[in-house]
Amino acid sequence: MKNSNNAPRSNFLSNISKTTRSNFITYGIIIVVYVIMQILVNAGAVSNLIRGQLIPICVFATMAVSLNLCVGILGELSLGHAGFMSVGAFTGAVAIACMESAIPSPILRLILGMLIGAVFAAIAGVIIGIPVLKLNGDYLAIVTLAFGEIIRSIFTNVYVGLDSAGLHFSILNRIKAAEDGKMIINGAIGLTGIKPIATFFMAALLLLVTLIIVFNLINSKTGRAVMALRDNQIAAQSIGISIPKFKLMAFVISAAIAGAAGTMFAENYSTMLATKFDFNTSILILVFVVLGGLGNIRGSIIAAAVLTLLPELLRSVKDYRMLAYAIILIVVMIFKNSPSIQAKMALMRSKKTARKKTKKASIGKEA
Amino acid sequence: MSEVKMVPYPSRSIVPERDVNERPVLEAMHLGVNFGGLHAVEEFNITVGKTEIAGLIGPNGAGKTTVFNLLTKVYQPTTGTILLDGKDTSNMNSVAVNKAGIARTFQNIRLFNNLTVEDNVKLGLHNSIKYTTLEGILRMPRYWKGEKESHERAMDLLKIFDMQDMAKLKASSLPYGAQRRLEIVRALATNPKLLLLDEPAAGMNPSETAELMNTIRQIRDDFGIAIMLIEHDMNLVMGVCEGIAVLNYGRIIAKGTPSEIQNNQEVIEAYLGKQKEA
Fold it and tell me: What is the CATH number that goes with domain B104-191?
């Protein structure tokens, strides 16, 4: 402790490497899990049930990370995150369908589609963020809740068709594409005629890129400013940190990531209903975040993976499936929030670090 | 930028001997605020010299913290003007006022509790770190340079209170006195011209208070800034302040040097009440 002030430079390096190390461990886990799953899939050791869940797991983990940026890091509750996913899904899918003849490579098409989905979701984020984020309190939760519902009803009434004459667009009025064309969004039937181009590799890559963006953001001056707003807005203003600017920035980045994830999700299926992105989905993503820990990025990925798989794995118990799901949720929450269990865990952790420290100190002395 | 108004001087500084030929860093004129019908602060006139240590004292509820909130635009004043280094601040909000050069601490400590001590100080440096959000996400060379510089600057600032060892701790885990000191460091990190300290010695023991007195003087000398403080600890106020203003019921009842204030009849009455006529 006493001689640590003579080495601020090494302190800096150790500090950077510590947070960076933890981030790289998370990246490593994602890559390792991806490789293992890919090997298992190739070997045919994974059931169809789980194989079908691989892309949704990556998508929902991405959604959880993105919502954690909004709820855990920024501290603003969003109840309509599926709305941004929906915007990304529909705009991205339309863009991909339009590019089908122009760009033959499905990977490039998917990447461009996700970027377009992200841009549209970001625009939606700006539109609802600018008026709402200037207010204090839970207004964002109310407005995003309404936003999710509005987006859902808009996309159940949109008709987009593509034929040789170009793109046809209509709200409420049913239209039909010409003989040589097809409908991309067909009102209440949703996205139709998608040729699924999402792959497990691309979904894992999306998650990895999202993680890199979010971790790098958190560990920069912008991320610090965002967390400062969460902790104390008056103090943040008093040291020259603008509240609307950083709130909007974090919220829009969160929305854009959700949009990209939405495109990926839509491209995994041949049809996609707008009702898929309803309030329940928003809450489901929020459950991932809360269960994984507010502000805990790695935790929300794990929660998303487990809770996406769980209902599928529980199919064997049939009628009791949702009951078991609920019980597991409750048990985890009790475990997480019980002070006595938390205290015991903290004690174990501090003992561990103390042991490590003494070990290090003794090694240092010997050297 | 708002238009620049020149300040009429020779200044009406609390202690005219100091900074008499220089433009004062702060000049508040006819400052006042109403909450509903309540005049929380009225006709507040004060001038603080460039490197003056000024004190603002008064009984509980006199409106001292309200004055700080007016100066930093937490509340918008209903009347009066505030000139900071000759610049009118009437169109500024809290963020702009800080960028223009006023930093403050709070009576009820407002730290970023979930962040480390170092990050709290780095947040004070936020506007002086030069890299954009995109450069941060992409980890460009300017990010590494900016982070390295801000780390070194933060450590230098923490050295003022000998707090380098605490840099990695969570702000909320610090003892009370250290939290108060951290707030001062964070405010100093914004590179202010005027530092407002709201009860810096609250909750400190006498030896800590004595140390704080030296530190306040040292900060003034090292940084060449003006400091204005609210404090109930009269040893500290009388020991460190060069000029003192006394506030009661939202009005200034006396201004002067510590010895003048100590002997001012009106001030004694404000604190202790009127002596009954025999």
Answer: 3.40.50.300
